[in-house]
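ARCHIVE CARD
Drawer: 12
Card no.: 0347
Subject: one protein chain, sequence and derived structure
Cross-reference: see card 0346
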Amino acid sequence: MNLMRLDRSIIEGLQDIVSLLEDQLKPLVQSELSLLVDVLYRPQLLFPAGTESRKNAKAEALLEGTAT
Protein backbone atom coordinates (compact mmCIF):
# COMPACT_ATOMS: atom_id res chain seq x y z
CA MET A 1 0.00 0.00 0.00
CA ASN A 2 2.71 2.46 0.96
CA LEU A 3 4.50 1.80 -2.35
CA MET A 4 1.30 2.45 -4.31
CA ARG A 5 0.84 5.80 -2.58
CA LEU A 6 4.44 6.73 -3.37
CA ASP A 7 3.97 5.75 -7.02
CA ARG A 8 0.76 7.74 -7.23
CA SER A 9 2.42 10.74 -5.60
CA ILE A 10 5.30 10.61 -8.08
CA ILE A 11 2.92 10.33 -11.04
CA GLU A 12 0.83 13.26 -9.82
CA GLY A 13 3.98 15.32 -9.31
CA LEU A 14 5.14 14.55 -12.84
CA GLN A 15 1.72 15.43 -14.24
CA ASP A 16 1.91 18.79 -12.46
CA ILE A 17 5.34 19.42 -13.99
CA VAL A 18 4.14 18.51 -17.48
CA SER A 19 1.11 20.77 -17.11
CA LEU A 20 3.29 23.65 -15.94
CA LEU A 21 5.72 23.16 -18.83
CA GLU A 22 2.87 23.05 -21.34
CA ASP A 23 1.51 26.34 -20.00
CA GLN A 24 4.93 28.00 -20.11
CA LEU A 25 5.97 26.68 -23.51
CA LYS A 26 2.68 27.21 -25.36
CA PRO A 27 3.41 30.87 -26.26
CA LEU A 28 6.87 29.90 -27.53
CA VAL A 29 5.46 27.15 -29.73
CA GLN A 30 2.83 29.51 -31.13
CA SER A 31 5.52 32.11 -31.88
CA GLU A 32 7.66 29.55 -33.68
CA LEU A 33 4.71 28.38 -35.75
CA SER A 34 3.90 31.97 -36.68
CA LEU A 35 7.50 32.58 -37.71
CA LEU A 36 7.51 29.38 -39.75
CA VAL A 37 4.41 30.50 -41.64
CA ASP A 38 6.03 33.90 -42.31
CA VAL A 39 9.18 32.23 -43.63
CA LEU A 40 7.20 29.88 -45.85
CA TYR A 41 5.24 32.73 -47.41
CA ARG A 42 8.05 35.32 -47.57
CA PRO A 43 11.47 33.64 -47.30
CA GLN A 44 13.25 36.76 -48.56
CA LEU A 45 12.59 38.44 -45.21
CA LEU A 46 15.21 36.16 -43.65
CA PHE A 47 17.92 38.21 -45.36
CA PRO A 48 18.95 41.85 -44.88
CA ALA A 49 17.38 44.35 -47.30
CA GLY A 50 19.41 45.09 -50.41
CA THR A 51 21.51 41.92 -50.31
CA GLU A 52 21.91 39.50 -53.18
CA SER A 53 20.54 36.69 -50.99
CA ARG A 54 17.31 38.60 -50.40
CA LYS A 55 16.91 39.37 -54.10
CA ASN A 56 17.48 35.71 -55.01
CA ALA A 57 15.02 34.49 -52.39
CA LYS A 58 12.41 36.98 -53.56
CA ALA A 59 12.89 35.99 -57.21
CA GLU A 60 12.59 32.29 -56.34
CA ALA A 61 9.45 32.95 -54.30
CA LEU A 62 7.91 34.81 -57.23
CA LEU A 63 8.75 31.98 -59.61
CA GLU A 64 7.31 29.37 -57.28
CA GLY A 65 4.18 31.46 -56.82
CA THR A 66 3.55 31.66 -60.55
CA ALA A 67 4.24 27.96 -61.04
CA THR A 68 1.46 26.82 -58.71
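Annotation on reverse: The longest helix spans residues 2-41. The chain has one domain: 2-67.
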